[in-house]
Specification:
Elements: H1 2-8, H2 14-28, H3 30-39, E1 44-47, H4 54-60, H5 65-72, E2 85-87, E3 96-102, H6 109-115, H7 120-126, E4 140-144, H8 146-149, E5 154-157, H9 164-170, H10 175-181, E6 195-198, E7 218-222, E8 226-227, E9 231-237, E10 243-248, E11 251-252, E12 255-257, E13 263-268, E14 276-285, E15 296-306, H11 325-338, E16 371-372, E17 381-382, E18 386-388, E19 395-397, E20 402-410, E21 414-422, E22 425-435, E23 442-443, E24 448-452, E25 463-469, E26 472-474, H12 476-481
Parallel strand pairs: 1-3, 8-15
Antiparallel strand pairs: 1-2, 3-4, 5-6, 7-9, 9-13, 10-11, 10-14, 12-13, 14-15, 16-17, 18-25, 19-24, 20-21, 20-23, 21-22, 22-24, 22-25, 25-26
Length: 486
C-alpha cells in the first residue's frame, strides 16, 4: 500500500525522493523483505488523530488502557503523538488500519456486515461483541479503514412472493452478486422483508438506515443520545403514502407527516426513566401504488437514554393531605388522561413563547425535573413543570396556538387549564386566580388565558407551567428555547 501511494505521487522534494529510493532498494532485496514479513506479526492498528486520548482510544476499541500501553510500550499515557501507529491488542489475524464510526439507528450487525462487506464474525471480533444487542444506536463501531472506501450502499428489499432472481433483474444485477455481497448460504436463504446490499452507482457518503427498505432514505433521532425528561424527535424520510408506527420502551410512537414531506414522531421520555438501553421499534407499510406493493417492515434496536442531571431539592415538608394518594392519584389520572391522545393537526408553529409576561418571563423560582422528597419520603417525586415568578393577577399568555381541552377547578392543581397543540403536545397551567378561556376555545400565541393565583395546594401564588409530549411531562424550558420538531 505504501509503495503504491509513493509511486503515484511524483515527489519534487529531493529528500523525499531519496527516502523512496531507500524504500525501493529495501523492497528489492528478497531476503530482507522476507525476513521483515516473517518477524512482523499480522496486526491491526490505529493512527492517533488530533484530539485523541489514550483513554478515549481504549474505550472506543473496547480494550483496557493497560493492555494498550503494554502492547505499544507506552509508559506515559499523556505522551501520545498525533500520527503514531498504535497496535490494538486482541485482534490476532486481523490486519490493517482500523477506524471507528458511530452506529446510527437502523443499522444492525447484519446490515453493517453487508454494507461494509465484512463477515459478521469479523465484526464481532473487531468489536469484542458478546451479543448483537451491543450494536445499539449511538455505540461505536470498529472496522477496517479500507472497508469504508467502497461501502455497498444500494439497498433493496425482497418483497413477499418475489424470488432473488426477480429482485436481481429489477436492479440490473444477478442473484450471485446478492449471495456473495450479503454472505448468503444460497438463494433459498433469501427471505421476504430482508434488506440486501449491493455496491451501487448512487453511492454516497451518507449511510442511511441499513436494515430498512431503500424507500426509507434516512432516519434521525434527536437529541442524540436521548435524555430523561426531554422530548425525543424521530424524523423519517420516506415516500409519500408511507404509514409509520412503533414503540419506544413499550410506549406507542405517533407519526405525522410535516409540510415538507418527512414523517415526525414527538415522544416524551419520562423524567424518572432509569438511564440505560431501551428498545426502539419502528414499523411501517410502504405505499401500495408503487413497486413496494404495500410491503410492510419492522426493525428493532436498542437506544440509550441518558440521565438529565436534575438536582435534588432539599427535603420538603407539606401538609399531609397534599401528598395523600387518595386525593392525588385520581386527580393525576384525570390530568394525565387529558394529555394522552395525539391529534393529527399540528396547531403550533415555531418557538413557544413564554406564558409569563415581562419582567417575569425569565424568572423561575423552580425548574423542571428537580428530584423531591416530601415529609421524609424517598426521592420518588420530581417537579413536573416550570414555575414562573409573578404574583396574583399577573396575566398568563398562551405560548402557542391550540385548543383548550380543560379549564376548571381541581383540588391539588387549583384552577387549571390544558391546551392541545396537536401531534401529542399539550401545555398546562395551574393555581390560577381566574380562568379566561373555556373548553373548545381556539387560542392564539400571546392571548391572555387566565391570571396567576394561589389556588389548590401551594405554599404561595405562582404559575406552574407544564408541557406534555406523548403522554408524559417534559422540560418546558426546551420548548421556550428551541423549535420543535427539530
Ligand atoms: Zn411547580
Amino acid at each position: 500500500m505504501l509503495e503504491i501511494n509513493l509511486k503515484l505521487k511524483k515527489p519534487r522534494n529531493p529528500i523525499l525522493a531519496g527516502l523512496i529510493m531507500a524504500v525501493c532498494i529495501l523492497l528489492a532485496i528478497p531476503g530482507q523483505a522476507g525476513l521483515a514479513r516473517q518477524s512482523e506479526p499480522e496486526e491491526a492498528y490505529y493512527i492517533v488523530q488530533e484530539g485523541d486520548s489514550l483513554w478515549g482510544i481504549a474505550l472506543r476499541f473496547r480494550v483496557t488502557i493497560d493492555d494498550l500501553m503494554g502492547v505499544n510500550g507506552i509508559s506515559n499515557p499523556d505522551q501520545l503523538t498525533i500520527g503514531r501507529r498504535l497496535l490494538i491488542p486482541g485482534l490476532e489475524g486481523i490486519q490493517g488500519e482500523l477506524t471507528t464510526r458511530t452506529i446510527s439507528f437502523g443499522n444492525t450487525l447484519r446490515s453493517l456486515s453487508r454494507r461494509y462487506q465484512l463477515p459478521a464474525e469479523t465484526l464481532v471480533r473487531l468489536n469484542h461483541l458478546t451479543s448483537p444487542a451491543e450494536f445499539f444506536a449511538g455505540a461505536t463501531l470498529v472496522l477496517p479503514l479500507q472497508n469504508l472506501s467502497t461501502p455497498a450502499t444500494h439497498r433493496s428489499m425482497l418483497l413477499p412472493g418475489q424470488s432473488l432472481l426477480e429482485l436481481a433483474v429489477q436492479h440490473n444485477s444477478n442473484p450471485w452478486s446478492y449471495i456473495l455481497n450479503n454472505h448468503l448460504p444460497g438463494s433459498a436463504s433469501a427471505l421476504p422483508g430482508d434488506v440486501f446490499h449491493l455496491p451501487g452507482e448512487e453511492q454516497t457518503s451518507e449511510e442511511g438506515p441499513g436494515t430498512l427498505p431503500d424507500a426509507i432514505t434516512n432516519i434521525s433521532l434527536n437529541p442524540d443520545p436521548l435524555v430523561q425528561g426531554k422530548a425525543a424527535v424521530i424524523q423519517i424520510f420516506g415516500p409519500e403514502g408511507l404509514t409509520m408506527g412503533g414503540t419506544l420502551n413499550g410506549r406507542p410512537l405517533h407519526f405525522f407527516q410535516d409540510k415538507n414531506g418527512s414523517y415526525f414522531s414527538l415522544h416524551g421520555l419520562h423524567a424518572l426513566t432509569e438511564p440505560g438501553l431501551y428498545p426502539l421499534v419502528l414499523t411501517g407499510t410502504l405505499p401500495t401504488q408503487t413497486a413496494y406493493q404495500g410491503a410492510s417492515f419492522a426493525v428493532s434496536q436498542a437506544v440509550y437514554i441518558s440521565g438529565g442531571n436534575y438536582p435534588y431539592d432539599p427535603p420538603l415538608t407539606v401538609s399531609p393531605e397534599t401528598i395523600d394518594p387518595a386525593v392525588t392519584r385520581p386527580e393525576d389520572a384525570q390530568w394525565s388522561a387529558l394529555a394522552q391522545p395525539a391529534t393529527p393537526e399540528k396547531l403550533w408553529d415555531g418557538l413557544f413563547q413564554s406564558p409569563a409576561p415581562p419582567p417575569f418571563s425569565d424568572c423561575f423560582p423552580s425548574l423542571f425535573g428537580n428530584r423531591r422528597s416530601y415529609n421524609g419520603s424517598t426521592y420518588d417525586y420530581f417537579h413536573t413543570g416550570l414555575d414562573f415568578c409573578g404574583g396574583v393577577g399577573t396575566e398568563i399568555l398562551a405560548p402557542a396556538a391550540g385548543i383548550v381541552i380543560f379549564a376548571g377547578p381541581l383540588t391539588v392543581r387549583g384552577n387549571a387549564t390544558m391546551i392541545n397543540h396537536g401531534w401529542g403536545v399539550y401545555s398546562g397551567y395551574m393555581h390560577q386566580s381566574e380562568l379566561r378561556v373555556k373548553v373548545g376555545d381556539r387560542v392564539e400565541p400571546g392571548q391572555v388565558i387566565g391570571l396567576v393565583g394561589g389556588t389548590g395546594r401551594v405554599t404561595g401564588p405562582h404559575l406552574h407551567f407544564e408541557i406534555w409530549v406523548a403522554g408524559v411531562q417534559v422540560d418546558p424550558m426546551d420548548w421556550l428555547k428551541q423549535i420543535f420538531p427539530k
